[in-house]
Amino acid sequence: MDKPPISPALKCLAAIAFLFLLAPVLIVVPLSFSGDVFMSFPPKSWSGRWYAAILQNPKMLEAFLFSVKLAAGVTVVNLAIAVPASYALVRLAPRGAEAMTSLFTAPLLLPTIVLGLAMLIIFARIGLLATVPGLFVAHLVVTLPYVLRVISTALSTLPIAVEEAAATLGAAPATVFRRVTLPMMLPGLVAAGALSFLVSFDEVVLSLFMSGPRLSTLPVEMYHHVESRADPLVAAISVLLVVFTLAIVIVVDRSLGLAKTFVK
Amino acid sequence: MMHQAPTAMTIAEAGPVRGQGFLSLQALTRRYHDFVAVDAVDLDVAKGEFVSLLGPSGCGKTTTLRMIAGLVPASDGRIVVAGRDITAMPTYRRDMGLVFQSYALFPHMTVAGNVAFGLEMRGLPKAEIRTRVAEAIAMVRLDGREDRKPGQLSGGQQQRVALARALVIRPSILLLDEPLSNLDAKLREEMRNEIRDIQRRLGTTAIFVTHDQDEALTMSDRVVVMNHGHIEQIGTPEDLYERPASPFVAAFVGRTNRLEGVQQGATVTVSGLAIEAPIPKSGPVEVLVRPHRVHVAPHGAPPPAGRNRVDGTIRRATYAGNVVQYEIDAGSVTLTAEAATAGIGGLIPVGTAVTAAWAVEDTLVFGRPS
């Protein structure tokens, strides 16, 4: 397809916007290779010592592993809830489906701090504070809206005629769903899964409320580290996190095509 | 227009006895709240017959087809196939093949996978599936493309896969929902013949939904003209064209001149002109005449055949290669006539005084509310 030419002014503007968005991330990279004891920019000396320091920090490693497990678990449960929920909302379209969708996606609009405070009060009373189930539920609440939104959109853009065709060919509803609907939704499922994983992995506010001395996610652990010390360790971790996130996005992109997955 | 060779006249002439068809719709109705989309439709289709549902959009033809397929539940009435009431049967047990306007192929399966789907649902042995899929793909001339995905095929090829997929299950009835509408004109004509040939060869009963009168006339044994949720007329293409049951059918199937007048006995008076009607009656009427049945000759030339005559002047001549259309100004009325062209210099120039004439049998007269 021929695209209209982009004017130099627009290119320039785009470059500035990208720089604005990426500058903080880019500054972290040189910081992480600092040889100094304190974070300062630009670093006075260079080394890889802070990367090595990560491996010597069991607290960080443990928090990282826990964050990965938590995000993975949250993602699995999210998909298990959102796929049937979306099917009910979109395909069966009961009375009030739109109102329900709005309700389910409301946590997206609420300030997370308000949500965190509410959960803190409730969870403290029922003894879920600083427990794995408590953290799990908290993450589920903030990630489910994304997952539901993406999967509902994926489902509602599927041409229903294809499912009808399967039914005329003799497929019972469950078979239609398994053999036709689900495979056609796959890009949406992968996108929703990736989104759920990344949002959970990155979640700070709720995790701060819900974590405790012996239960901490990686972002919380990093936050505490920055509070008490000013060494460039977190910069090194940040770079690894950027690489980790990019890796997920690239895997998704390679397997399905980024545009197809995220832009619907 | 076209002259149909009288094909399959035996079944086409009468159609099955009411309520006795292989497919029988009995007072089939679909309501959406206050809106009646399909209003007590009765239709009987014989085994092996090709019947079109023809009408403007919103006439209920697609809803009728979808009720036959079980995709839309009937509000009232019955659907009977081979003597069995299937009104409440779910779609997946109905054993019907449906070809959609949008093709509706499974995008994640290959051509062979698409065609095999219905056979897999029937739990047939792998070897049999393989042979039947190969046969079906050969039938629509797509051999060698078995492993392509639908996205890699042209529109016409996709529709042929859809046809193979619907036919490979040997459906009791083949349903076609405007299957040619997304194809370009040339391909449409080719697919028309292909669908008709295959349907005849397999002897499959087919219901074809279309808004295109050409498609309906050229493909069908019988055509059902629908309007506002009810049937205007059921008949062979020739019936509809030559003996339309209503002005709606006359206007929808082919073009027509329309004059309003008052009939007394055998004579209709249209703004001072006397036109002879084939059947005597009295009251306000509309008179319809097909343009190509109106013969035009220069005034003074030997009068053209036919007993109804109107004198006038050619106001416009539209040359379309095979035919030429004359707009004749006859004072109080305007008539359109269409004549086949015959070599260079055969056109009647604009402004020529002419006599337009047509046979009394070609005069269609319908009563109209005064």
Task: Characterize the structure shown.
- Chain A: InterPro entries: MetI-like, MetI-like_sf.
- Chain A: It is a multi-pass membrane protein.
- Chain A: It is found in: Cell inner membrane; Cell membrane.
- Chain A: Belongs to the binding-protein-dependent transport system permease family.
- The complex is a heterodimer of chains A (about 260) and B (about 375).
- Chain A is mainly α and about 260 residues long.
- Chain A has one domain (about 60-260): MetI-like (MetI-like fold), CATH 1.10.3720.
- Helices cover about 75% and strands about 0% of the residues of chain A.
- Chain A has helices at about 10-30, 50-55, 60-90, 95-105, 110-125, 130-155, 160-170, 175-200, 205-210, 220-230, 235-255, 260.
- In chain A, helix 1 crosses helix 11 and helix 6 crosses helix 8.
- Chain A starts with 7 loop residues before the first helix and ends with a helix.
- With about 375 residues, chain B is α+β, with helices and mostly antiparallel strands.
- Chain B has two domains: about 10-95 and about 170-250, Rossmann fold, CATH 3.40.50.300; about 255-365, RNA polymerase II/Efflux pump adaptor protein, barrel-sandwich hybrid domain (OB fold (Dihydrolipoamide Acetyltransferase, E2P), Beta Barrel), CATH 2.40.50.
- Helix content of chain B is about 25%, strand content about 35%.
- Chain B contains nine helices and 18 strands.
- Chain B has helices spanning about 10-15, 60-70, 110-120, 125-140, 155-165, 185-200, 215-220, 235-240, 245-250, and strands at about 25-30, 35-45, 50-55, 75-80, 85, 95-100, 175, 205-210, 220-225, 230-235, 255-270, 275-290, 295-300, 310-320, 325-330, 335-340, 355-360, 365.
- A six-stranded mixed beta sheet of chain B has the order 6-7-8-3-9-10, sandwiched between helices. A five-stranded antiparallel beta sheet of chain B has the order 13-17-14-15-16, with no helix packed on it. Chain B has a four-stranded antiparallel beta sheet with strand order 2-1-4-5, with helices on one face.
- The longest helix of chain B is centred in the middle third of the chain and has 18 residues, at about 185-200.
- Mean pLDDT of chain B is about 90; it is low at about 1-15.
- The interface of A and B includes residues 164, 165 and 176 of A.
